[in-house]
Amino acid sequence: MQPPRRPATFRLDDPELILQEAEPDTADLLIEPLPQNGEIAATSAVATATAPRRRPLATLFWTSLSGLVSLGFGLAVTALVEDLFARSQWLGWIGVGLVVLFVLALVLIIGRELLALRRLGRIDGLRARAEAAVLKDDRALALGVVDELVALYSTVPATARGRSSLQQHRGEVIDGADLVHLAERELMTGLDAEARRIVSNASKRVAAITAVAPRAVIDIAVVAATSAALIRGIAGVYGGRPGTIGFFRLIRHVLAHLAVTGGMAAGESVIDQLVGHGIAAKLSARLGEGVINGILTARIGLAAIAVCRPLPFSAREAPTLRDVAGGLFEGKKPG
């Protein structure tokens, strides 16, 4: 038998309030709320992706190849240092010093990459636990999410007021889902606004540059470079700060999210954006290409927000293409 639901506060005029008739206790039912009308509504189906299959032959191949390359490089460096000692004693010691510096720098780079990967994994795990806490209404799980979220942003000055308010009111919230919603409203509001501003500025910049670029290869280079900087910037806003390896991993996640959500046509098609604003017939060919490139950049930014954000969009509505790219058509900055 399903345990009774804990008390919760709500407003009768809340548009998200759903009144449901009681069902007979014949089976345990799990009711999952529908995703919001945003383009990047975080669903459990996307978060709980199927685990990739293990390929032992590929793993054995790459492991043995990397081992051979490492051994070859080590033997080459050893032979070089021996040759330097054979030529001159001081040349040999210079070679040893350079090898020591190389090894030290390599260790530091590997350590930095591992820390960056750990941060990205921490954010992914935090988002998954937050989704589970909202779905199951688990207060204990939600408290763990809140504590980890506060620790994640403990050094971010922009979240100081939100962290203080969250710590002050966390004991007053009974339901786990409400606690996650409170954390989202207190900590994510300012970060979401900053992420939207970055996406909006990037889409406008790409649209302006590619509209006057003489060749398509320049368009591709501008979109690629801006998108890479955009993904890294959004990850930094939400506390990811990816390294080189983590950045490529983040790009893979963004592209996977774009594939799941239908790419550029998710939610609002490009044709709807152009014709809906009544300017399709007024645009020149180059200006139209610039607008399309700006929309593509905005789509990539929206996917990056969904991937880098440590909490799912539950209490707040997910941003849409019109929110971040509306300035391409209306001549005003999206809010």
UniProtKB/TrEMBL annotation:
Chief localisation class: membrane
Membrane topology classification: Multi-pass membrane protein
Compartmental location: Cell inner membrane
Keyword field: Cell inner membrane, Cell membrane, Membrane, Transmembrane, Transmembrane helix
One matching Pfam family: DUF697
TM segment ranges: 57-78, 90-110
Keyword Transmembrane helix (UniProt): yes
Family, similarity comment: Belongs to the UPF0283 family.
Name of this chain's protein: TIGR01620 family protein
